[in-house]
C-alpha cells in the first residue's frame, strides 16, 4: 500500500424527509445563498422544503446553474455573494450545482484572478479561505456531495478544482428527492459512479486489499441496482442503494493508498466540451476502449475485475479480459447509454479536435503510469468511434 | 436502508516514517500531554520519534495506562491535565491508551462527577467540550484511532463512552511500528477487527448493499492476511493491510443505515472484567455461541455470510450455517486464539457470575432486536464453555 492521507469531514444526513434538520446545521445567523439549476427543484417542491428548513434566516437565491457549470455563470453568483455579504452557500441539485457552488465558495473571497483557480489541475489552488457550504443532493452520480472536488467549464475546456476547504460541511441525501429524475439522468449517474470506481481500481496491483474489495462491492451493487432503479424509479430501497453507492464511489475511501487513472474522465471531458455529450455518456464511450488499448498495463487488475465482479473464469487471459470489457459495455448499453462515439452524431473528423483539445489542456501524459500520450488517446478515440 | 448520520473527521496519516509530520498537525503553541502504556513505546523507540516530531513544544508524559484502562488511573492523568494546564492530548499506543485518552479528554474539562460520564451507554454523555486529541496507533485492533468511542473499566465493569467531540483530530498509522508486537496481541487484534465487522453485519437484512459488501471485503481480507501477518510479522504489506482493515472495521462506515448487534462485546466485556481474559479472546469465546443460539433471528445474514465470505454452498440451510460457524471458530483457533471458556481456567460456576454482572450492568435486552435476555446470555455462556 502506498502512504496516504485521508480526511473527509462531511456530515452525511441520509434518509427521507429530513430537510427540517437544515435548521440545526446552518449557522443561525447566516445569510444564505441557495443555489440551484434549471428549476426542477422548484417544480418538484424541493426548494420550498429547503426554504422552510432555513426558517427565519436571510436567504437569497441564485438559479440557472447549467449542466457542466460555466465560469461566467458562476462569476455572477460570486458577484452576488460579494454584494449581498453572503456567509453560507447551500447547493440544491446535482453534481453541476454542487461543483459550481464549490467554485463560488473558493472564488468569492479570493483576491486574485478567479479564472486562475482553474489552472492547478489536481493540485490545490492557492486559496487561504473559502465560504462554508452545504448541499442537498438531488442526483446520484458525481459524489460531489462528499468530496473536495469540482469541475468547471471555461473557454471550451473542463477544469478540476480540488481543495480541502471545499468539502461540504453537510450533505442531505434523500433518495425520494431523486424519484422524479428523467431516466437518462439516472442511467448517466449509474455509469458515472461505475466509472469513478473503475478509475480508482483498474490500474496496477498495489496491495490495496480493502480498497479493492470495497470497489468490487460498489461495482457489483451498481450492476444489481442500476437496472432495478431504472425500472422502478420510486422503489425507495433501490434508489437509496444507488444514492449511497454513488457517494461511496467518489468520497475518497476506495482511492487511498492505491494508484488512480483518470484517463477516461479526461478524454470524456473533451467530448462533453466539444460536442455536448453528457458526462456519463462520454465515460461509457471511452472506458471500454481505454481498456482495449491498455490491456498490457492493466492486465492483472483487469483479470481480477473479470473474476471478482463478473465471475468470469473460463478462457485464457486475453479471452477473460475481452469478456470483461464486453460485459462492461453491455452493462452500459443495458442502461440505455450508447457506447460508440459515432452514435452521438460526431463525425470521424471530430477525433482530431479532441486530440487537439487534449494537447491544449496539457493532457499528454495520462493514466496511472503517466505514460498515456496523445497517440494512445487518438487510438482510444478511433477504437471508440464505431 | 435505515436513515443515518455519518460524520468522521479524523485525519488518517498512513505510512512508514511519518512521525515528523506531528509538527504540522499539533498546534504550535500547544502544551502536550503524551500518554502511553507499559513502556514498549519507549523500548522500541517510538516515543523518541514522537518527541522529536513535537519539536520545541512543551511536553509532559503520562505512562502506565493499563490494558482495559482503569478509571482511577485515568483520573490521575485528568489531575495532571488540570494542574499542568495541558491543551492537547497525544495517545501513543493501542486501543487502551487511545480509549483512556478519549476519556481524559472528556473528563478534564468536565465540572461534574467524572464517573457519571460512564453511565450513558451508547448515548453521548452531557459534555459540552473536550480537549483536542491525536493518536499514534501501535496496535491494529480496536479502531479507536478513527472513531468517537472508548471503553473504560470501573468498579468491576467495562463502560462505553461515545461522543462526537472524542474523534481524534488525527491518527498516525505506521504499520512498521507494530512489527515488534507479541504474536498474541496481533492474533487478538485480528479477532477484534473480525468481530467488530460481524457485529455490524450478521444481524437481519436491511438493504445495506454497500455496507454488506464492504463488511464481507474486510472479513475476507482478514481471513487472508491474518495468518500471513502472524507468520511474517515484518512483512510490511501484510501488516499494512491488517492495520487498515482494523481501522475500517470500526470507523463507522460499514455500520451506517443497518442494524447492529453488540451482544458478543457486551458479554465478552464481563469475561474480561471478571476473569482477566483478553478482549480479543473473550470475543472468540462468545461469538460462535451467539450464532448457535440465534440461528433463527440471524438466519438470512448467516446464510449470506456462509456463501459470500466462506463460499459455502453445499447442504441445507442449517448445515450451511453450522459450517459457517465452524469455519469461524477454526479461523480464530488457527490464529492461536482458544474459543472455549473452559480453556481459560474459568470454573463452570463462573457463568453465574457473568450473568449476575450482565444483570448488574443492565445488559438484559441485547442484540439487534433488543430481545436477547439473561436466559439467552446464560445459554450462550453454557454453550461457549466447552
UniProtKB/TrEMBL annotation, chains A, B:
<dbReference type="GO" id="GO:0046872">
    <property type="term" value="F:metal ion binding"/>
</dbReference>
<feature type="domain" description="Alcohol dehydrogenase iron-type/glycerol dehydrogenase GldA">
    <location>
        <begin position="9"/>
        <end position="175"/>
    </location>
</feature>
<dbReference type="GO" id="GO:1990002">
    <property type="term" value="F:methylglyoxal reductase (NADPH) (acetol producing) activity"/>
</dbReference>
<dbReference type="Pfam" id="PF00465">
    <property type="entry name" value="Fe-ADH"/>
</dbReference>
<dbReference type="GO" id="GO:0005829">
    <property type="term" value="C:cytosol"/>
</dbReference>
<dbReference type="GO" id="GO:0008106">
    <property type="term" value="F:alcohol dehydrogenase (NADP+) activity"/>
</dbReference>
<keyword id="KW-0560">Oxidoreductase</keyword>
<dbReference type="InterPro" id="IPR044731">
    <property type="entry name" value="BDH-like"/>
</dbReference>
<comment type="similarity">
    <text>Belongs to the iron-containing alcohol dehydrogenase family.</text>
</comment>
<feature type="domain" description="Fe-containing alcohol dehydrogenase-like C-terminal">
    <location>
        <begin position="187"/>
        <end position="357"/>
    </location>
</feature>
<dbReference type="GO" id="GO:1990362">
    <property type="term" value="F:butanol dehydrogenase (NAD+) activity"/>
</dbReference>
<dbReference type="Pfam" id="PF25137">
    <property type="entry name" value="ADH_Fe_C"/>
</dbReference>
<dbReference type="InterPro" id="IPR001670">
    <property type="entry name" value="ADH_Fe/GldA"/>
</dbReference>
<dbReference type="InterPro" id="IPR018211">
    <property type="entry name" value="ADH_Fe_CS"/>
</dbReference>
<dbReference type="InterPro" id="IPR056798">
    <property type="entry name" value="ADH_Fe_C"/>
</dbReference>
<protein>
    <submittedName>
        <fullName>NADP-dependent alcohol dehydrogenase</fullName>
    </submittedName>
</protein>
Amino acid at each position: 500500500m502506498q502512504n496516504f492521507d485521508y480526511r473527509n469531514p462531511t456530515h452525511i444526513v441520509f434518509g427521507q424527509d429530513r430537510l427540517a434538520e437544515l435548521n440545526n446545521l446552518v449557522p443561525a445567523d447566516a445569510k444564505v445563498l441557495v443555489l440551484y439549476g434549471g428549476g426542477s427543484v422548484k417544480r418538484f417542491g424541493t426548494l420550498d422544503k429547503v426554504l422552510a428548513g432555513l426558517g427565519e434566516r436571510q436567504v437569497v437565491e441564485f438559479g440557472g446553474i447549467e449542466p457542466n457549470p460555466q465560469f461566467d455563470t458562476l462569476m455572477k453568483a460570486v458577484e452576488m455573494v460579494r454584494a449581498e455579504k453572503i456567509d453560507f452557500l447551500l447547493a440544491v441539485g446535482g453534481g453541476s450545482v454542487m461543483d459550481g457552488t464549490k467554485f463560488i465558495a473558493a472564488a468569492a473571497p479570493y483576491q486574485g484572478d478567479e479564472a486562475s483557480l482553474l489552472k492547478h489541475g489536481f493540485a490545490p489552488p492557492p486559496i487561504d479561505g473559502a465560504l462554508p457550504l452545504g448541499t442537498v443532493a438531488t442526483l446520484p452520480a458525481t459524489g460531489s456531495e462528499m468530496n473536495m472536488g469540482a469541475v468547471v467549464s471555461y473557454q471550451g475546456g473542463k477544469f478540476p478544482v480540488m481543495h480541502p476547504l471545499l468539502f461540504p460541511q453537510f450533505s442531505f441525501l434523500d433518495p425520494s428527492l431523486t424519484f422524479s429524475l428523467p431516466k437518462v439522468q439516472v442511467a448517466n449517474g449509474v455509469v458515472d459512479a461505475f466509472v469513478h470506481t473503475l478509475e480508482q481500481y483498474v490500474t496496477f496491483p498495489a496491495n490495496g486489499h480493502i480498497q479493492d474489495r470495497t470497489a468490487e462491492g460498489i461495482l457489483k451493487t451498481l450492476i444489481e441496482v442500476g437496472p432495478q432503479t431504472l425500472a422502478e424509479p420510486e422503489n425507495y430501497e433501490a434508489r437509496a442503494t444507488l444514492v449511497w453507492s454513488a457517494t461511496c464511489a467518489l468520497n475518497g475511501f476506495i482511492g487511498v493508498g492505491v494508484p488512480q487513472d483518470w484517463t477516461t474522465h479526461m478524454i470524456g471531458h473533451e467530448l462533453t466540451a466539444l460536442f455536448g455529450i453528457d458526462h456519463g455518456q462520454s465515460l461509457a464511450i471511452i472506458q471500454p476502449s481505454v481498456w482495449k488499448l491498455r490491456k498490457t498495463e492493466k492486465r492483472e487488475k483487469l483479470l481480477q475485475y473479470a473474476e471478482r465482479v463478473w465471475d468470469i473464469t473460463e478462457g485464457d487471459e486475453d479471452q477473460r479480459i475481452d469478456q470483461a470489457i464486453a460485459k462492461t459495455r453491455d452493462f452500459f448499453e443495458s442502461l440505455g447509454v450508447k457506447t460508440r462515439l459515432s452514435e452521438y452524431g460526431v463525425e470521424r473528423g471530430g477525433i482530431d479536435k479532441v486530440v487537439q483539445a487534449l494537447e491544449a489542456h496539457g493532457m499528454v501524459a495520462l493514466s496511472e503510469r503517466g505514460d498515456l500520450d496523445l497517440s494512445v488517446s487518438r487510438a482510444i478515440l478511433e477504437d471508440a468511434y464505431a
